[in-house]
Design goal:
Structural class: alpha+beta
Largest sheet: 10 strands, mixed
Shape: globular
CATH superfamily: Beta Polymerase, domain 2
Strand content: 15-25%
Strand order of the largest sheet: 3-4-5-2-1-9-7-8-10-6
Distance between the termini: 42 Å
Number of helices: 13
Number of domains: 1
CATH class: Alpha Beta
Helix content: 40-55%
C-alpha cells in the first residue's frame, strides 16, 4: 500500500496554529520562523486527511457502480490553505473542527441518480455519518445547491490512526455542478470571490435567479416568485451584463497548447492545478504517490503572501483521469457551456448570435512514450 502522511503534532498545536491562521500574519525577520511553523502544523493536519479522503472516495465510487449509475464521476481534494484561513476568520471554530479539510464530490446525470447515491451512502457506508445538509431542496441564500454529508473515518488495524478524521462529501447533479463552477469561473475572470458572495451584485443576482430556474427544471420544489417575472429579470440582467457573450468569450478563450499521450500503466495518483491570475493561465502537474503529492501541494502554496500577492490559486485533486479532472474543475479551464446554454434558453435569445469560431488546437504529437515530467498548460483570456 502507498504511504500516506501521518499526523506529527498534538491537537493543542493544531488549535494554536488555527488561532494564528485566523489573524493577519505580519512577516518580519523576527516572526518568519514562527509563522512557518504555524503553516507546517496546519499543513500536516490537513495532509493527514489524505488517506481517509482517498478511502471514502473509493467507497463513493463503489456505491455509484452498485447503483448502476452511468455517466457519474467522483473527485477529491484537500482544502486550499487560503480557503482554510478565510473559513477560520468567518466561523467561531478551531482548525481541528473544520469539517471539509478533505472533500469528495460526486457529479451525476440526474436528480434521481443523486437521490439514489445519497440513500446508499446514508445506509451503507463503512464510516460514521456525522452531519448532513440538504441544499438541493433548500438552497443556500446565494442559490448554491448540493447535498452535503460529513463522515468520520472508521479504520481498523493500522488505519485506526486516522479514525475520526472528517471528510465532507458533496453529491450534486451536472446541472447543479454547472451552476457552481460557472460562479467560480466568472469570479476568476472578474477577480472577485463570487463563491463567497462577494463581487458584482448584478452577477450575483443573475446566478441566484438561474438557481431558481434549475430548481424548477429538476422538479425539486417550487421556486420563489412568478416564473414570468423571474425570466424577465434574467433577460434584463443578461442584457445589462452581456452575460451570455461573457460566458461565450470565457468558453472560447481556452486553448490546449500541447497534447500528451498518457501511459495507462502509469497513471498519476493526483493532479496539482495551479492557476496564475497574472497571466490567466493554468498548469496541471501529475503527481505520483501521496507523500510526494502533498509535499508538492505544500510547496506550491506560498506561505509568505507578500511574495506573490495572491497571484496563484492552487489545489491538489484526486481523480481517475485527466478528462474527469476537467469535468470536476471546469471553472479553471473556462468550460461553462452547460450553464451558458441554459441561460440562453431562459432568455430566449438566438444562440447563433453569440457563436464564435472555435480556436485552433495545437497539432497532436506523434504517439510515443511520454516523458512524465510533462505538464498541461491552458492559456485563457
Amino acid at each position: 500500500m502507498a504511504e500516506f502522511p501521518r499526523f506529527k503534532y498534538t491537537m493543542g498545536d493544531v488549535r494554536r496554529a488555527g488561532e494564528a491562521l485566523a489573524t493577519d500574519l505580519i512577516w518580519t525577520d523576527e516572526t518568519a520562523e514562527t509563522i512557518r511553523q504555524v503553516f507546517r502544523i496546519a499543513n500536516n493536519w490537513r495532509d493527514s486527511h489524505a488517506y481517509p479522503m482517498s478511502k471514502i472516495r473509493y467507497e463513493l465510487s463503489g456505491q455509484i457502480r452498485r447503483n448502476k449509475i452511468a455517466g457519474g464521476f467522483t473527485m477529491a481534494r484537500l482544502k486550499r490553505m487560503p480557503s482554510v484561513r478565510r473559513k477560520l476568520r468567518a466561523i467561531s471554530s478551531h482548525l481541528n473542527q473544520v469539517q471539509d479539510l478533505a472533500g469528495c464530490r460526486a457529479v451525476l446525470p440526474t436528480i434521481e441518480d443523486a437521490n439514489a447515491l445519497i440513500t446508499s451512502m446514508r445506509h451503507n457506508s463503512l464510516h460514521t455519518l456525522h452531519r448532513e445538509d440538504d441544499y438541493i431542496i433548500k438552497p443556500k441564500p446565494d442559490g448554491y445547491r448540493s447535498h452535503h454529508m460529513v463522515f468520520k473515518f472508521r479504520g481498523k488495524g493500522d488505519d485506526e490512526v486516522y479514525n475520526d478524521r472528517r471528510v465532507e462529501i458533496q453529491i450534486r447533479t451536472r446541472l447543479q455542478h454547472s451552476w457552481a463552477t460557472a460562479v467560480e469561473a466568472v469570479g476568476l475572470f472578474r477577480r472577485e470571490d463570487m463563491k463567497a458572495g462577494q463581487g458584482n451584485p448584478e452577477w450575483l443576482r443573475l446566478f441566484r435567479l438561474m438557481s431558481s430556474e434549475f430548481l424548477l427544471i429538476e422538479g425539486c420544489a417550487e421556486a420563489d416568485g412568478e416564473r414570468r417575472d423571474r425570466v424577465a429579470e434574467i433577460a434584463a440582467l443578461n442584457e445589462q451584463l452581456n452575460a451570455v457573450q461573457t460566458l461565450e468569450d470565457l468558453r472560447q478563450a481556452v486553448m490546449i497548447t500541447d497534447n500528451y499521450v498518457f501511459d495507462p500503466r502509469n497513471k498519476p495518483d493526483y493532479y496539482l492545478i495551479r492557476y496564475d491570475r497574472n497571466s490567466n493561465s493554468v498548469k496541471v502537474d501529475p503527481q505520483y504517490g501521496p507523500m510526494y503529492a502533498v509535499q508538492s501541494y505544500d510547496n506550491a502554496e506560498s506561505i509568505d503572501p507578500s511574495a506573490t500577492n495572491g497571484r496563484f490559486n492552487t489545489v491538489l485533486v484526486e481523480v481517475d483521469d485527466i478528462e474527469n479532472l476537467k469535468a470536476a474543475y471546469p471553472n479553471y479551464f473556462g468550460d461553462v457551456e452547460l450553464f451558458r446554454n441554459r441561460l440562453i434558453e431562459a432568455t430566449g435569445v438566438d444562440p447563433a448570435k453569440f457563436k464564435l469560431e472555435p480556436q485552433p488546437s495545437a497539432p497532436q504529437r506523434p504517439r510515443e512514450k511520454p516523458d512524465f515530467s510533462w505538464l498541461h498548460k491552458w492559456k485563457r483570456w
